[in-house]
Design a protein that fits this description.
206 residues; binds zinc ion; mainly alpha; 66% helix; 3-stranded mixed sheet
Length: 206
Amino acid sequence: MTELRSLQLQGALLFLPIPVVLVLFVVHPEPVGASLVVGVVLMLGHRFLARPYMHRSLSGKCLWCNGALPDDAVAIPLDTAGGRIEGRSCPPHALPLQKYLAALERLRGPLRGGIFGPLFLLLGCLLLVAWGQPAPVETATAIFRLIVGVTVNLAAIGYLWVAPASPTLVPFPAHNFTLLGVRNLVWIFRLVGIWWILAGARALLG
Ligand SMILES: [Zn+2]
């Protein structure tokens, strides 16, 4: 296996815990307490595998398309919570990458609020149910899907109208953007986001 294929495969495997966590929170299989604990442990523990992968992958594949880097690859400086790192992209992919990262930076307030607000509401309800207390879990789940769906699309569609910037601040854990390449992640955000908007709105209105 080439180094690129190995990086792509490792990135895909390291991405898998993210949908598993979302299923544990959104579907919350019984017992709810176990789903909550496993989901939180995976969510908090993921970075210990994904951050070393990020550092290995940055010079080995394009941060946008997840493909091979040409000799004239462009360096993309990124300011993360762990310090400055340098991504690389194919020359034509520097522009969409810098536009998307600029959108994350510029919209970081609404993006954080739109993700962490509904997340904490849902986790709070799951915690109450796990303790045998009544809580509006299905309403909180519908709100979570609706608001998170709108929020991820705010950046995944909205970045098309944002001017590129460099260097950029990455206001979310940067390793998550390196696993599949940003372009694939943006498509997941668009498609799953639209599905969640419809599912969340239907549950709230029904
Ligand atoms: Zn590329």
